[in-house]
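Below is how a single chain appears once it has passed through the pipeline. First comes the sequence as given, then the structure the pipeline wrote out for it. We keep one example in the README because the format questions we get most often are answered faster by looking than by reading.
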Amino acid sequence: MADLSAEDLKLVTLARSARARTGAAEGAAVRDGDGRTYVASTVGLASLSLTALQVAVAMAVASGAPGLEAAAVVTESDAVDAFGSAAVAELAPSAVVHLARPDGSIANS
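Resulting structure:
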């Protein structure tokens, strides 16, 4: 397992919880500069489709977060979605996005 800070491990735990609770394909969590976290899962409606990371970033922006420190995505996919990654990078180019498997193991760091 990658060497993550306690705060980044918390993001992974929250993202796992969101995914498990909703039965969604993905769970995500982001932390803003004030330490607040925003947790989301995939939205798959006929009229709206968003990845978990897109939703978490949108929640942070809608809550007035001026930037992000880090993010975590829990998925079976081998990569974080490009649109979610771009949204994180737009708010904070240096923010790390951790990719984790459903069992909590870190796929990248």
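The longest strand covers residues 68-74.

See the next section for the split statistics.
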